[in-house]
Amino acid sequence: MKISKKFTSTNSVLAILLSLSLALVIVITPAPIKAQQQQVTLTAIVAEPKERWDILFNNALQKLRQNHPDMDIQIDYRVLPYDATRTQILTALVGRTPIDLISVDQPWLGEFAEGGFLTDLTQYANTWGRESDWYPTNWDGGKYNNKVYGIWAWTDIRAMWYWKDLLNQAGVDPNSLKTWKGYIADAKPLNDALNKQGIQGMHLVGADHSPDMWYPYLWMLGGEILEQKSGHPTNGTYWFPAYNSTQGVRALEFIKQEIDAGIKPQTNHFWGQEFADKKFAVMLEGSWLLGTFPREQWSNFTQSVGMLPMFPVPNETDKTATMMGGWILSIPETSTNKDLSWELLTIMLEPDVLSPMLQREGYLPTQKPIGEGPYAAQLNTTIPYYKEMISMIPIGHSRPNIPEYPQIAENIKQAIDEVYLGVKEPKQALDDAAVNSAKVLGW
Amino acid sequence: MSSIFVKAEPYFFLVPALAILLVFLIFPLFWNIYISFHDISLITILNEWEYIGWTNFIDLFNDPNFYTSLKITLMFVGGSVALQFGIGLLMSVLLHQQIRASGVLRAIFIIPWTISAVIAAFSFKFIFDDNFGILNYILNQLGLQSVGWLSDPNIVIWSLVIANVWYGAPFTILFLTAGLLSLNPTIYEAAVMDGATKLRSFRHITLPLLRPFIVINLVLITMWSVNFFDIQLVMTGGGPLFASTTASLYMYRQAFEFGLLSQGAVAGIILIVINLSVALIYLKFLRR
User: Which among A220, A283, A312, B140 could disulfide-bond with A203, CB atoms 3.0 to 4.6 Å apart, if both were Cys?
Assistant: First the structure.
């Protein structure tokens, strides 16, 4: 009984002491700041390569956090291979998955917007007031049916790249590559001199994006992929295939001449890596080709690799053309943080945030303050042939961003393949493709 | 009351399996049929779905590319099944002989089946590359001309068949080996005593006893080949000129590349009909 009493009193003392210490800890310890912050995680789906997004998101997130000290903001971004990006984004959006930011390739915009998957950013953009900073073509690329659905963040152009030593070896003057006649004539000496070393003279795209490398020839001749036409059964005035015009036929005839000159279409495409590996002496490829060379080689790049800011032209006096690609940043309709996502998007597009990424990756700006302002000098010293690439922006065209474009591109690809394989003559191939495209467009 | 329960008891045990069947097979099948009678694309999926009757079926049967894809499917499946089965049967019979290290060899032969089809497809894409592939390199070293393995419309489908056979034959080896191991060895001993040669034993004992295994194997590899599109998608994307677009790839491209979900659903229904027909033919053969 005595033992029990002693035990009880000791327990009581211990209990009181513990309660007091606990109360003291609660009173003294300040509540953590994090507990008061609102937790927000922004989600994004973007296309490879990953490094560019790492740079952009890290820099932009710092600024966004500074703007919102009351929030604990995180970004959860998934980087997908280009081929999977469109399908993955669409699947996620059809499933109503909340995503706050996506990268949209320029020709996908119409399909995404028409499907109701993108937020109309017109009001946001008007309040932002930076439209005049953009090159007009690039600003318009983010619009569909006169509404802003995305902001074209950076662009790329296609140009002609060549290895100086290989051309020397074959006795080919780079200037002769400028015209169709010269380009065709140079194919044989290049192949004769280089094939034994396992090097092809000239590259010709035979992969899925072969239409992209044919469009510049169509545009430089004054042709168009599609044109507006009245009398559509349901839409009144709507798009109609125009690529089978005389200009289109001439452009495809040039491709046929390339085949006849022994230039082989390449069904596998490695986005410039095949050129960096010296498997080809001449290649028409996008400005991203620079990224396939190690950064430490950029300072001496112009000594070994030459660049002509053009696609070959019919005659020296003719104006060339190129195709512009690049990425548009959009906010899906399913986003649950639209205001914050827009703020993040605009921070990512601020010249001091975007320029370091462009400088590192070799992409071209879509906004004048970077392309022409003080940032330009910095980019010019770092990115080889930057000035030449920028000079191509005014002659750059973009692909139609209508929902039917993927099927139209498929029709054009078929026509090009038919010419590659000698199944049809250029006119017949394009006319047949245009009939199919007209059907796709609802005519 | 208790007798009713006893009678119903086996059906209660079937409920989990039936539920899975209903949710994962029957419902998607009917959903697919429902979609095929409506106008649903990626552009219209969030709007009200318009009922359009047989229009999608008519459009599909008016598309010459669909008929091309059926012809390509026939070549792909015919070539794949014939070679996959022939090689598989030969290898399983050889490995069933008293060979040293047959267990190790069996394990090695299974390796292709254990890797991802996409990885296999990428490997073959580089092997068959027209300019930089190892196959054309060897041909050139032997003084022969390069072959357009993936760029010649007359050859491309056979390149895909080779890749599919490499990937799929191990399953036949494994399956028929299991069949061979189940055969009673005393039958062969009796046949030897009766003076039967190995070839006659194979023809009159092995093949008839293996028939159920052979039929099931043929059903499975045929259906898989009909439905398979990973190799075609990665190696050629269906080109050139649709020469490697099988019906399954046609379905995928309609639905997910062009966003025409209803068209894809119709192609899917046709694939189901093809699969069911194949299964019925084989099962009829099994019952004979």
Answer: A283
